[in-house]
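ugh ok fine here u go
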Amino acid sequence: MAFDSLTDKLTGIFKKLRSKGKLTEADVKEAMKEVKMALLEADVNFKVVKNFIKSVQEKAIGEDVMNGLNPGQMVIKIVHDELVSLMGSDLTEIPLNTSGMTVIMMAGLQGAGKTTTAAKLAGKYKAAGKRPLLIAADIYRPAAIKQLEVNGQKQGVPVFSMGDRQNPVDIVKAGIAHAETNSNNIVLIDTAGRLQIDESMMQELQNIKEAVHVDCTVLVVDAMTGQEAVNVAKSFTDKVGIDGVILTKCDGDARGGAALSVKAVTGKPILYVGMGEKLSDLELFYPDRMANRILGMGDVLSLIEKAQASVDEEQALEMQAKLKKSGFDFNDYLMSMDQMQKMGGLESVLSMLPGLGGSKMGEITAMVDEKAMKRIESIILSMTPQERSNPDLLNPSRKNRIARGAGVDIQEVNRLVKQFNETRKMMKKMPGLAGGGKGKRRGFGNLMGNIKLPF
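structure:
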């Protein structure tokens, strides 16, 4: 996951700072030297690191901090606030016209995930009650149009295409005319990319912007390319003009340097981050929440929002009632696994809990890996409906039959049944999980009552 390595290093540095009763100027400078190395190793832009360290150091070596009751914690607070400032301070969303159409042009290099991101964004707008249209203007990459059509179909969003033999400018003009005729109020243009920046690509984007009114130009960059992502963002800013950036593949970027550098280098905000393949994995970029993740403080607000978007209210209340009566069964267990997948999987959920960043995440997910979850699912699906509804029926002969049906050892079935019984007992004993009435719907204890972790 993004920032794992950086989180580990910063956590270690700040642990040493907190352990000191008083801080000297030398202590702060030594800590900042280590922070500087950690940021550079995370592939953060050198000039950005230099300015960041200078700013933190100036604020940290002050009388109020050095003589405070908890100087180590105060230094961490300064680092946190500077990280938030570095990444843009506030949430920035794509501005939409309140009346009429909003035209959004997607730009970026090949392989950054531009086509998929355009469809995800269109899907989000559709879910919010808008009427989006995708325009297939990438006539060069093989199967680019087909890919957009398939992704558009998945999101239930129409795609305008004229094939790959027309001029992209003509396609865009015709697409916008089509949107006006069909009352589409948001148009997303999927433009052509290249393997690397070249003049013809930049000129084509400029031609589109000259031919039609573009309200917002969004650059899609691959976070895994690190410093190169920042260089790409700067080139597009200078030559085409962009209004914001979407960072993709952040779930596969362990360093996170791009997220910490883009705003400072280009002056343009990060709008969204891509954390996986699902529609829900395109997340709005909150600088303060990202700073919390980087410092190992978790991101409980995003977790609550994911739960509220993914967990069915009636199912949650029904499951709570079952817990109170010890009626939790294997059907509910399957449902909880489905809820977990809708929220991005176990690793995504755990990464948002405080204190579970960095290497700790690796330790936990190694114990409860996604493959094990698939085996659990196959075991439960090998049970009869009666066995799933009444786990007490599971005698040795039934367990043997289930093991054969799922293609696993009998020990795995026994282990699952034991874990299930322990989970049921634990949940019954914890009022924060089984309870929760009105007024507590948004509380974290109640949230975890709606998400029954299947382990």
